[in-house]
Amino acid sequence: MTSLAALRPRLPSPVQEIEDDRLTPHGVRLLLKRDDLIHPELIGNKWRKLAPNLTAAAGRTVVTFGGAYSNHLRATAAAGRLLGLPTVGVVRGQELAGRPLNPSLARCAADGMRLHFIDRSTYRHASEPGTRAAVLRAAGAEDAYVVPEGGSNVRAVRGCRALGGELAGRADVVAIACGTGGTLAGLAAGLAPQQRALGVPVLRGGFLASDIRALQQRAFGGPRGTWHLDERFHFGGYARTTPELDAFAEDFEERHGLPVERLYVAKLLYALLSLTAESAFPRGTTLAAVITGSPFPG
Fold it and tell me: In a 3-state reduction of DSSP, which class is residue 46?
């Protein structure tokens, strides 16, 4: 079994209260659950989802999937380097001849991840057993331990339940930005009965609620916790921002001295400030925002 203790994660991650004059008139408190401080390279929910899977891999090659700017691919590559595990990243989109890797994929390669590019049509069907087997054969990784895109599987969802436990009794609403929904599925399961979880999807599509329900079914045998999604704050979809979102993130950084990651965290914080302005939270509400990442310095 792979031991993660040597990586010395900072658990439970710290909770930081901030004061913001956009919240105070509404009687709302905001706590930041600093999962970005768990580990400098396996940041936030990436640690919580990867840790149980890396243990289960038991030294085998780890294969996972993602787009060209995937935080999950970067975290898996870093984990492989730190733990001495071979990693393979199946990347959505065919590599263009002679074109250099973007900073995110270059970091993966520098950490020892072998990159295998597939066309988008094949990628869409990669969860189907026949297609997945063919992809693994082509990547030379038939006997590898497979982690799905975003890391969201039964082990990951169960691992994220501890996040809810760390916040039990600390906040009325615990909010998190969502990609594949695994972290929210586990978070909601770990909260106390009087608490609720709020997910802010960063992708367009409206499919995430059914995915979360399916993840909870597989992980726990049925629904767990009280949760809902607000799908208005994706700003055009994954890896997309707007001048308005960038300006908001820069202002938040200046106000609170906290670097704001744009693809997930900025959208989450923007959503909470907007919902507060809409009087979506009763006076006296304590919000906790899970900070799942930090800006990539590439």
Answer: helix
Q: What pTM does this model have?
A: 0.91
Structure tokens at 104: 């995110």
Under DSSP, the state recorded for 260 is -
Q: For the chain, which residues make up each domain, given as ranges?
A: 5-41+153-290, 61-143
Q: 5-41+153-290 sits in which CATH class?
A: alpha beta
The Cβ of residue 163 has, within 10 Å, a number of other Cβ atoms equal to 29
CA dihedral 73, 104, 134, 140 (to 10 degrees): -90
pLDDT tens string 102-159: 998 999 999 999 999 999 999 999 989 999 999 999 999 999 999 999 899 999 999 9
DSSP state of 92: E
Cα 76 from Cα 238, distance rounded (Å) = 19
| Residue matched to tokens 């959505």 | 92
Per the CB < 8 A criterion, the answer to whether 287 and 175 are in contact is yes
Record the tokens describing residue 65, joined without a space: 């999937």
SS3 state at 59: coil
The strand order across the sheet containing 227-229 reads 15-18, 29-33, 286-290, 173-178, 196-201, 227-229
Q: Say how many C-beta atoms besides its own lie within 10 A of residue 93's C-beta.
A: 12
Q: Do domains 5-41+153-290 and 61-143 have the same CATH topology?
A: yes
- Cα separations (Å) of 47 from 30, 221, 240? 24, 24, 24
Q: Are 49 and 76 in contact (CB under 8 A)?
A: no
Task: Classify domain 61-143 at the CATH topology level.
Answer: Rossmann fold (3.40.50)
Tell me the chain's radius of gyration from C-alpha atoms: 19
Q: Report the amino acid identity of residue 3.
A: S
What number of H helices and E strands is found in the chain? 10, 10
